[in-house]
Amino acid sequence: MRELAADQRNYFFVLEATRVGIHKSILAALYDVHHAPRLPDGEYGLGIAPANRIPLSQLDTFPEQVQYAANTIRSLTNELIAQGWDGAALWSAADNRYSDAFLRRITEGYRPASDDLDAGLLESCDYQSLFNAYLEDMQVDFADTQLPESLAFLDRALLDLVERLPRYYQGLTHHREALLDALRIWRKADTREEIILSLLNSREFPTSQAELDRLDRGLLNFAQNVSPNYGGYPHQRESLLRLTQLWRQLNTREDAIASLSQGTSPESGLAVVDPALVALVERIPQYYRGQGRQRTALLEGFRMWRGLDSRKSAIAALGIETDIFTTPLEPSRAQAIAQQIDRELVAFIRRVPGAYSEQPDQREALIRLAQLWRELGMREAVIQSLIEDVKRMEQARPAPPTSPPPLIRPPRWTPNNIQLTASIVPNGNFTWAEATRGGQRMPPDQATVNAMVRIATLAQRARDRVGRPFHITSWYRPPAVNRRVGGSSNSRHIVGDAIDYYVEGMTGDELYRILDPWWPGGLGRYGGNRRLISHIDARGHRARWRHT
Predict the structure, then answer these.
(1) Distance CA 454, CA 234 (A)
(2) How many CB atoms lie within 10 A of CB 39?
(3) Beta strands 91-92 and 533-537: pairing type?
(4) Which of 498, 520, 546, 512 lies closest to 176 in space, CA to CA?
(5) Under a CB-based contact definition with an 8 Å cutoff, are residues 381 and 389 in contact?
(6) Tens digits of per-residue pLDDT, 403-449?
(7) Residues 114-145: tens digit of each pLDDT
(8) How many other CB atoms are there within 10 angstroms of residue 535's CB atom?
């Protein structure tokens, strides 16, 4: 039995606050102030005791204490709203935190109604202690985030984004996930399945295009009705912050706030089509036949990629003598020159995936190449065709693995039965030896084991999709190790569901573009002398970033 590290506790605070739509820092404050009861798992609780028909056994672990504390704050908020408290009474917009009046109400304690089977009994506490702990946790969350002095702009910025959002909705997975989670929090539901059931009369996520269209119509109808129904209640604000975070694929709630201070456009930008562009380029050598339109497409892409001013300059840059423009050519020489141009263009296009660094001029060169290759008239048409490619890539499924399963496996991995040489998932490639650095970093509890299994399951899909081995550089890191190597306090490596890795012969950028369309969690890449290394994690929502 042992106490969790602060970073590990913070993971549970974020998880439950996101589920119920409350401000995470209030959970951290309740833990700091109450630090009770003492729990069998070696931790301390958040001042939550059994109420109604909730047995003590449901509250005797730290994750359960956080879960019921979150439920209890939600129940208290709902009760106050029913009593007539408005958004301004519950939340101080200028300070971007719960109001003093609401914090005082929390310190009085709370006993839920007799028919409320989700909330516990919240013990009373000292107001000043709770206030100080609440502000301290907020300051930690915003420590690395650049924000304006006043956050009074936030509500208007959130509404500006959601009002324009339907015009930019493209049916991409992270767009749909953003609206689903926002609607879930807005309606105070615990799971997305509840929202899907309300919109489609089924808990199963839709697979047919007709069902997806129905789901999208319901989600967009929600977005269109947010502004007239926004009352500034905390759960509504958290709903829209979550929407912003997932729509923009940002790491944290605080990053979402910072991004809104820079602009409120829902436009995703052209980087969204990068995976499709690179996938198209990778297929071109297979289908290139030296036809006129194909040669024209590659030559124009080469010209723009190199920043050349004319087709003549592009041909010269390929090493072709420029006298071909002034001297009549014999048929045999013309054919030889065409073959030489083809060889040089194909050699160029083979180098593009590794050289592509997502610069605007590079992207425009490939968009123009795609436009000519696919014989599309308008630029808007080629962008839309690439977006459709991305959507297909999101839905693609890798071939099932064919490796034989290990001879002996426990029915469930626990901290006490880990076999270092065994694959973490059946028929998988990732072993416990890789995940634990050869047994030096063993998971201390079941939650960490479960997280490591979760990321191994997803990472196997990624490896199958890439088709090459992943070389692990970092997986689970205990908090002390994470601090020693300079990891963030929010690092998923602490939880156990993050992997840093490289693939021989591929850059981090190339891996990012292959995985970006469908990877459901965090996806990062490194620059500088670490440009070959990529990061994946299983945080439960899409986040994308580049480390310099």
Answers:
(1) 31
(2) 17
(3) unpaired
(4) 520
(5) no
(6) 555 457 899 999 999 999 999 999 899 999 999 999 999 999 999 99
(7) 999 999 999 999 999 999 999 999 999 998 78
(8) 23
